[in-house]
Amino acid sequence: MLKRLRLSQHITANTDRSFQQYTEFINLPPIKIDSQKIEYYLISAQGFIDMSKYDAVKDYKIEPNIKDADLFLTHPVAG
Q1: What is the pLDDT of residue 66?
Q2: Are the C-beta atoms of 33 and 14 separated by less than 8 Å?
């Protein structure tokens, strides 16, 4: 399916990532496809996925407007 979308130019992929899966983007991506921040965002997204396996995540913001914070998380109180 991804190959068909790439051939029809609906998406593009970063294929320069050796020994890793390709990263697909919508065509005309909002960020550079070779940006160093992509790994950071992928790790942050994986953190959300991992935390969601244990409980619902109420609020998950990447790079909020809090000084020196890379991630802000609000976890619901059990009870």
Answers
A1: 64
A2: yes
